[in-house]
Amino acid sequence: MDKQIRSRLSLLNPVHFLALGFGSGLAAKMPGTFGTLAALPLVVLLSHFC
Question: Cα separation of 5 and 9, whole Å?
Fold first, then answer.
């Protein structure tokens, strides 16, 4: 991710925090993989309620 874009993001902002997969999207290597790993528990949790 570009340094300029990264400097504008704040994990204290709830929208940024959720959009970045609880911060996993900021990983230097394999951010998509870490984002998927962060999403799996949410999918399992939500599948029990729907």
Answer: 7
